Amino acid sequence: MTDALFRNNAYAQEAAAHVVSAGPEGLVLDRSIFYPRAGGQPGDSGKLCWNGGDAAITEAVKGEGDAILHKLADGAPLPAPGTQVTLVLDWARRHRHMRMHSAMHLLCSLIPGAGVTGGQVGAEKSRLDFDLAEPPTKEWLTERLNALVEANHPITEEWISEAELEANPGLVRTLSVQPPRGAGRIRLVRIGPQAAPVDLQPCGGTHVRSTAEIGRLEVLKLENKGRQNRRISLALVEN
Q1: Which of 9, 12, 157, 217 has the fewest CB within 10 Å, making it most exposed?
Q2: Tens digits of per-residue pLDDT, 59-90?
Q3: How far apart are CA 43 and CA 214, in angstroms?
C-alpha cells in the first residue's frame, strides 16, 4: 500500500519516499503527497527527483489495492525499486482543486434535499449535477456562495464508523457514487461549526482550511441535462 500523506496534511508540497515498483504504467511509492484521481477530483501532477535523475509525474491514479500509481511522461527515466526520491507537487494546480472542491460542498449546502447525480472538479471550472426540477437562479447562487465564503467558516474532517453512516443515510448526497466501504470507517468533511454545520458529507478529497481561502466565486451557467437533471457550473473569480 501507499501511505497517503495528503490525508493528514493536504498542504504538504514536498516529501521523501522510496520506490516500491517501477514500470511503463508508472511508479508505486511507499508514501505520497499526490492525490489519486477519484470522486470527480483530478489526480495530482508534479515531479520527482532522485540522485542522478528526475521525471515529470503527469497524474496520480489509484493502483491495485491501496497503492497510488504515479504516471510518468512518455520516455521518462525510471528509478529502480528501493531508490529514495523527492516528490514535488504542482501546488498551484492542487490548491485550485482544493478551493474548487470546497466550493462545490458550499453549492451542495444551498440546494438541500436534491441528490447529486454527477460532478467534476477542475482548476478553471467545476460542475455539479443535481436531481432537481427547478434550480435557483445563478445570480442568487453566486450571492449566497460568496456570503458563505466571506463568513470564513472552518473546514474540518472527522471519521465515523460504517455503521454510523448506515444509521444516517441522509449524509450521502451523491446518487451515482457511494462512499467506499470495507475499511470500517468513513471520512466526513464538515464546513462550519460542530453544532450547526453549513455542510457535512462523506468525502475523500482534499480541501482548504476555511471558506475564506476559496476566494470569490461565480456561477457561470445552469443547464438542463434531462427531465430532472440540472447542471450548475462555477468558477473562481480571483487567482
Answers
A1: 9
A2: 999 999 999 999 999 889 999 999 999 999 99
A3: 20
